[in-house]
Amino acid sequence: MILLGLLLVASRFSPSFRHPVDSLLLAQGLIDAQSGGLLSLLTKKPRRTEISFGGVLADSYSPHDSPGWGDAPPRGCVVLVHGMATMGKADHRLIAFAESLARLGFAALVPDLPGMRRFRAEETDISRIERAFSWMTRGGAGSFERCSILAFSFAAGPALRAAGRPAVREKVAAFIGVGAYYDLKNVLRHLTTSGGQGRPAFPGGLPIRHGKWLFLRYNTKLLGLDAHRGRVEAIVSRKRRDEAADVSDLLTGLPGSARAIIALMENKSPERFEALFARQDAAQRERLGSWGMRDVVPGAGGKKFFIHGRADPFIPASESVLLASRARETTGEAASAFVFGGLRHVGIEADLFSLARILEGARFLGFISTVLSAMEGG
Fold first, then answer.
1. Tell me, what's the pLDDT at 152?
2. pLDDT tens across 126-137, in order?
């Protein structure tokens, strides 16, 4: 009854709700990623093939093994861009999601991104995403005229950059970012001070305590600390064991720029953040700014959709709102951000279909339906 209620309410809030059952099955499958949910019972397991092209290793998911599709052309295609995860394209959650899309009739391609597997942004990942997209639209998997890009978490940055490259931009049907970021300064503010003193410094959930130290560990190049990697690792290890641990002995001998970034990471006061950020040297601020999305969003192709968990502990939900606002103000095209209480950082909460969430869950299903329509080219 709750599922039926979700569909009825969703259709009322979204008159153009074209894919009620598909949206529901996709969401339910994401909740129960291990089994694939009802969708896995109604369809055969899609064909997954590892392929290689232009120095890119990727997994291709074909819908042709699912009942009802046979040799019919797929509804659309999508390049799935994994976030910061050591397993990369082999992450079980990503596999389950790619299989769910294939079961619904979409051809999916998941390129392996070494930078994201190492928890850091790398220019080479942008080129890999571009080549994966071009493979889908210029010879591979049926040579689709248009394709969508769906990127998770920090990978939305490289993916948006790829979506703005000339070979990609005009062929993007839709760009979907899940838990994406707009400005790394905002992310650092969130990781270090949000939730402090009983109030968030930036709209978002309470940050995971280890988040800022993991960001420091994996981004020594971005933060200008590559020459001091060993010392950084020692600081991170000590701080992860005890947030209040004294690291002054490890700071001895480090240049002022390195001590400034450690001070920024140690700070928990929202009032002190701006002053501490201003102490970072110019090169440091420029590197962080260069991976921001303000100047990237206007050039990215496709209809834009951003989905974010209201209490995301890593990237504040306000980042997706900023992305959508920037897209609307610079392109004049519709761009949507959906901030959803039932979403964690990149996964859906198990109580999506509870009576308490029926209204928000229905709106979420309506949003997913709109995204699926855009991925079909509608």
1. 92
2. 999 999 999 998
- DSSP-based three-state secondary structure for 249: helix
pTM for this prediction? 0.86
Phi, psi of 45, deg, nearest 5: -65, 125
Work out the burial of residue 311: count CB atoms within 10 Å of its CB; fewer than 13 is exposed, 13-18 middle, 19 or more buried: middle
Dump pLDDT digits (tens) for 313-351: 888 888 999 999 999 998 777 799 988 876 766 566 555
Domain boundary among 264, 290, 316: 290
- What is the domain extent for residue 200? 196-290
User: What are the residue ranges of helices labelled H in the chain?
Assistant: 2-13, 20-31, 37-42, 92-103, 114-117, 123-137, 156-163, 166-169, 184-193, 211-218, 229-241, 248-251, 256-266, 270-278, 282-290, 318-331, 358-375
Same domain, residue pair 272 and 249: yes
pLDDT tens column, 137-189: 876 555 688 999 999 999 999 999 999 999 999 999 999 999 999 999 999 99
Q: Does residue 172 share a domain with residue 127?
A: yes
Quote the number of domains for the chain: 2
Residues 274 and 306 reside in one and the same domain: no
Domain contains 233: yes
The tally of CA atoms less than 13 A away on the side-chain side of residue 260 is 17
Same domain, 104 and 30: yes
